[in-house]
Design brief:
- The protein has 636 residues and is of the alpha+beta class.
- The strands form four sheets. The protein has a five-stranded mixed beta sheet with strand order 4-3-6-8-7. Strands 5-14-11-10-9 form a five-stranded antiparallel beta sheet, with no helix packed on it. Strands 12, 13, 15, 16 and 17 form a five-stranded antiparallel beta sheet that branches.
- Helix 5 packs across helix 19, helix 5 packs parallel to helix 20 and helix 15 packs across helix 16.
- The chain is elongated and about 90 Å long.
- The N and C termini lie far apart (97 Å).
- About 1% of the residues have low confidence.
Length: 636
C-alpha cells in the first residue's frame, strides 16, 4: 500500500487540529469573550479553594458544580497563575481533543473518509468553537463521553483487548457524570442502547456478556460517589428546580411545553438559534442551509437503517443528548445539549460521503472535485465562525454586560496608571463578584481598590491624590453625587465603555449635623444632613478594612420609640456565603437615601451588624465607643 495514502489522515488531521486551535486560541484573553462572566469568576474561586486544600466530589458554590473540570482547571491555575488564560486553556484543549475523539469514533463506525469530514466540520463549527473559548465545565462532557463511546465500539468490534476496552468505556462513562449536569443523559443513553442491542442483536450481546457486565460495573463504581452524594444532599442541586418547568408540566400531564421544546430542538440545526446570547448568536442555527439539509437527510438515513447498530447508535445518542434541553426552559439550549458534539457532524458527513459514492465526479475523497467541495465547505464554516465569534457575538445582545466588557477596559486602564495608589470602582456586585473579577482581569494586583454600588445612592472617594472614581458608562452615579463631583472640580472623561472621575484630592465635606461616632474599629460616622424634602445625606470614614460582611440598618421610629419601618444596605453576602472586603482605610463613603415611613417618624436608629451572625441569630451589631449598638438621628 502507498505510504503516502497511509499517512494522509495524519496530515489532514494535523491541519484540521491547527485550524481548530487557531479558532479556539486566538484572542482567548478578552478579545472574544470581551471580558469575564460571574460564572467564570465563580469557577476560579472554586479552583482557588482546591489549591487551598478544600476537596469535594461536588462543590455546592455557584448553584452546584461537579468536580471533574475544576481539578483540571486548578492544575492550569496552579501552573500559569490567576488569570483568564489559565481558566480558558483547559476548555480550548478539551475542544481540540474532542475533534480527535470524533475522528477516532467515526472512523470506527464509518471509515476514514467520513471521519475526516466529520472532524473537519467540528473543528470550525461555531458551537464547539464557542464553548472551547469559555472557562466553563460543559465542554469536558462531550470529550469524556465521546471517549466512552469510542472504547465501547473498540470492544464491540474486536475480540482481543475486549475486556480492557469495555472497562475503559465504563470508566469514561462514569467519569462523564463528574463533568456537567447534562451528563445525566449518559446513563439514559446506555440504558436505551443496551435495550436496543438486547432486543435486536441478542446473539452479539450473549457473545460479549462478560464485557457488558464489566462495563456496567465500572460505570456504576465510578459514578457511585457522586450519585450517593446527590441522593443524600438533595438541596445541593437547587438550580435544577429553577429551570425544569417543562418537566414539571409533563409530570402533571401537560405535554405542550415539552412538545414545543422538541420542535425548537429539531429546528436548531437549520432554522432557529438559541434564545440566549450567553449561549451563542440567536439568529444563527447550528448549520447554514446546505449542510443543514445534509444533516436532516443524514437523520433520515439513520432512521432508514436503524436495524444496523452503528446507525441506531447515532439516533439514540442524538435523542438522549438533547433531552436535558427538552425538559428545561430556554430551548434550544446549546449548553444543555452539548453531549451531542461527538456525533453532531457525523450525520452531514455521512451524506457528503454517500453523495460522493453516487457521483462519478465525487467517487473518491482523493478526486479533485471532492477535495474542492470539502475545502469550500471547510473554508466557509471557518469564515462563518470567525465572523460570529469575533464580530457578531462579542457586541450582540447582553454579551458586553454579562461578560463585563467595561470592567475589562477599566482593568486595562488601571494597569496603565502607575501613578495611582488606589481607586474606587462602581459596579453591580461590590461585596461579592466585583473584587475577584478585577483581580482576574488586572495584571497589577498591588493597587488596592474600593468597590461600591451607585444604585444604592452610594459614592466612595478614596483618600489618595488624585481621588479616582471609575464606573461602567451604563451604570450612572446617583444624580446628587454626579453633581457634587462636578462642583468639587473633578475631571470627567468617558473612555470606551467606562467613565472616570479624577479629583485633585479628597474634598472636605461639611454637613449640617457633624458627628464623630466610631462603630467598632472599622467605620466612623462624620455627619448627616436633610435635603430636598427629607432626603438624607450621610458621610462615613473607613478606618480599617472590615473583617466580615457589614450590613447597615436604618429604623424609622415614632415619638414613642416604636419601630415603624426599616431598610438595609450594603454587604449582605449571597446565598453561597461569598463576600470580599472591598473598602480601604481612609475611604469616604457618601450616601444619599430616603428612609422609610418619614411621614410619621421622629427619629432614625442607625447602625451596622455582621450579617453572617444572623442565622440562627441574633445579629451582632458593631458597638460604638460608648458601648451602644446604634445612634439616633433626629428627623427634620
Amino acid at each position: 500500500m502507498n505510504r503516502a495514502k497511509i499517512r494522509q489522515p495524519t496530515w489532514v488531521m494535523t491541519f484540521l487540529l491547527l485550524a481548530g486551535a487557531a479558532l479556539r486560541l486566538f484572542g482567548l484573553n478578552n478579545i472574544s469573550p470581551p471580558g469575564v462572566t460571574h460564572d467564570e469568576v465563580a469557577n476560579w474561586l472554586i479552583d482557588r479553594s482546591i489549591l487551598a486544600g478544600e476537596h469535594a466530589i461536588y462543590f455546592t458554590r455557584a448553584y452546584g458544580h461537579e468536580a471533574g473540570f475544576h481539578y483540571l482547571q486548578t492544575a492550569f491555575v496552579g501552573l500559569i497563575g490567576d488569570n483568564i488564560l489559565a481558566l480558558r486553556l483547559p476548555a480550548a484543549f478539551c475542544g481540540l481533543l474532542g475533534i480527535a475523539v470524533t475522528f477516532a469514533l467515526t472512523r470506527k463506525l464509518f471509515g476514514k473518509n467520513v471521519a475526516l469530514m466529520a472532524a473537519g466540520l467540528l473543528a470550525v463549527l461555531f458551537w464547539p468553537v464557542f464553548y472551547g473559548r469559555l472557562a466553563l465545565r460543559a465542554i469536558l462532557l462531550p470529550l469524556v463521553a465521546g471517549l466512552s463511546a469510542y472504547f465501547w465500539w473498540q470492544a464491540w468490534q474486536a475480540d482481543a483487548r475486549a475486556a480492557k476496552s469495555f472497562a475503559l468505556a465504563g470508566l469514561f462513562a462514569g467519569l462523564s457524570l463528574h463533568t456537567y449536569m447534562a451528563a445525566r443523559a449518559v446513563p439514559i443513553f446506555y440504558a436505551l442502547w443496551l435495550t436496543y442491542l438486547a432486543i435486536f442483536h441478542w446473539r452479539e450481546v450473549k457473545q460479549r456478556w462478560q464485557g457488558v457486565v464489566l462495563f456496567g460495573v465500572m460505570f456504576a463504581a465510578v459514578a457511585a460517589p457522586l450519585v450517593i452524594y446527590l441522593q443524600t444532599n438533595p438541596s445541593a442541586e437547587f438550580r435544577i428546580s429553577e429551570v425544569d418547568a417543562p418537566l414539571q408540566a409533563l409530570r402533571s400531564g401537560d405535554w405542550q411545553p415539552v412538545l414545543q421544546n422538541g420542535l425548537k430542538l429539531l429546528g436548531m440545526f437549520g432554522f432557529v438559534g438559541t434564545p440566549l446570547w450567553r449561549e451563542g448568536v440567536p439568529s444563527a442555527p447550528v448549520f447554514e442551509p446546505v449542510v443543514a439539509i445534509l444533516f436532516y437527510a443524514g437523520l433520515l438515513l439513520c432512521l432508514w437503517r436503524w436495524r444496523q447498530p452503528r446507525y441506531a447508535f447515532l439516533l439514540i445518542w442524538l435523542a438522549t443528548s438533547v433531552s436535558p434541553s427538552l425538559v428545561t426552559i430556554n430551548a434550544p439550549s446549546y449548553i444543555r445539549s452539548i453531549l451531542i458534539l461527538p456525533v453532531l457532524t457525523v450525520l452531514p458527513a455521512l451524506l457528503m460521503h454517500s453523495l460522493g459514492q453516487l457521483s462519478t465526479l465525487l467517487r473518491h475523497l482523493s478526486t479533485r472535485s471532492s477535495k474542492i467541495l470539502l475545502l469550500t465547505i471547510f473554508l466557509f464554516y471557518a469564515a462563518r465562525t470567525s465572523v460570529l465569534q469575533f464580530q457578531t457575538w462579542p457586541n450582540g445582545g447582553d454579551v458586553p454586560f454579562v461578560w463585563q466588557a467595561a470592567f475589562t477596559e477599566m482593568a486595562d486602564y488601571l494597569d496603565g496608571r502607575s501613578d495611582l495608589t488606589t481607586a474606587a470602582i462602581a459596579g453591580w456586585s461590590p461585596s461579592t463578584m466585583d473584587s475577584p473579577t478585577m483581580t482576574l482581569l488586572r495584571q497589577n494586583d498591588d493597587l488596592p481598590l474600593s468597590h461600591f454600588d451607585p444604585q444604592e445612592g452610594t459614592l466612595i472617594l478614596p483618600a489618595a491624590r488624585p481621588a479616582v472614581v471609575i464606573r461602567p458608562s451604563d451604570l450612572p452615579l446617583d444624580p446628587v453625587w454626579e453633581t457634587q463631583l462636578q462642583l468639587w472640580g473633578s475631571e470627567v472623561e468617558q473612555d470606551g465603555r467606562f467613565t472616570r472621575y479624577a479629583l485633585p484630592k479628597q474634598p472636605a465635606i461639611e454637613l449640617a449635623n457633624p458627628m464623630d461616632v466610631a462603630f467598632g474599629e472599622e467605620i466612623k460616622l462624620l455627619g448627616y444632613e436633610w435635603v430636598n424634602d427629607r432626603e438624607l445625606l450621610l458621610t462615613w470614614r473607613v478606618t480599617a478594612v472590615p473583617t466580615a460582611p457589614r450590613q447597615q440598618f436604618i429604623h424609622s421610629l415614632d415619638a414613642n420609640g416604636s419601630q415603624l419601618a426599616d431598610t438595609y444596605r450594603f454587604d449582605a453576602p449571597d446565598p453561597q456565603g461569598i463576600w470580599f472586603p472591598h473598602w480601604q482605610p481612609g475611604d469616604l463613603i457618601l450616601q444619599h437615601l430616603t428612609p422609610p415611613a418619614l411621614g410619621e417618624a421622629t427619629r432614625l436608629r442607625l447602625g451596622w451588624f455582621d450579617s453572617t451572625t444572623c442565622t440562627p441569630g441574633p445579629c451582632q451589631n458593631l458597638q460604638t465607643v460608648d458601648g451602644l449598638a446604634f445612634v439616633l438621628l433626629e428627623v427634620e
